[in-house]
Write a structure and sequence with these properties.
The protein is an alpha+beta fold and 317 residues long. The chain has a single domain, classed as Sulfite Oxidase, Chain A, domain 2 (Alpha-Beta Complex). It is 20% helix and 21% strand. It contains nine helices and 13 strands. The strands form two sheets. Strands 1, 4, 5, 8, 9, 10, 12 and 13 form an eight-stranded mixed sheet that branches. The protein has a five-stranded mixed sheet with strand order 3-2-11-6-7. It is globular.
Amino acid sequence: MSLLIKRADDIPASEITDRALYLTRRDFIRTAAVVVAAGTGPLAARTAYAQQPAPHGRRFERVTRSLLSTAEKPNPWEHITTYNNFWEFGQDKSDPALHARTLKTTPWTVAVSGECAKPATYSVEDIIGGETLEDRIYRHRCVEGWSMVIPWVGFPLANFIKRCEPTSKAKFIEFTTLADSRQMPGVREPNLRYPYIEALRLDEAMHPLTILAVGLYGEVLPNQNGAPIRLVIPWKYGFKSIKSIVKVRFVEKEPTTTWHDANPPLYGFWANVNPDIYPQESERRIGEFFKRRTLMFNGYADQVAGLYAGMNLRRFY
């Protein structure tokens, strides 16, 4: 038996699988495994997701239902806690479930600085204290082509911003994630510049849909999902919703953010879900077999389109 191996320059272009098609096939295979797992019990689910779901945590005593929630059915706890991005714990979507379990989330503080009248260091308890926690069921869209519906527990970021009293110079708000190489193995990898930084224009941050999340499904936030406190902006791609926040800074000029710095053509600063830009006209909801059409602003156009009136959304993507 002989084996013929062609050199790269001998292979005609017609025989080379297009990269986009290859990625689509890989995504199809992964999704098929997820669908099978969803219907064949916990053992298969662990096989498909590679990790066990997060253990359930303390339930919040009083959570009100938000009128801003979508009526769509949320993804189950098993999907949300085993398939997500958190590069500080690894690049594969199953890595956070494996490596984030030892993250120490108490005590935890958030340092506020910059253009504000009340710079201070707040404990998470100080930030949450006095807030009315809401159940916010939001659609989420990832730039890789998948989506989920997640029932967050949180409160409007605007409430916290008002407590900090930003000055008239504050045009943007910058957030920084913890970067502890002892607890976060991904920080030791040369893939991104750490600490992870994200930012919003101040009016985006003040919008009622933008929340600081401290839980999901009525329980405290699992480590792999950004414990103990994270940002959630449902009309933007997932990388804008920064996790495990340790710093907040009010600034006058647009900050340099991590993914925009790493790959500007793909990860724009604004990161609004816009099927005409990436382009990603369709998405696959985790746990479903068929794809859905991607909606402008992730389906929240009625609420947020006014924030970008007059802007060229192809230039400011």
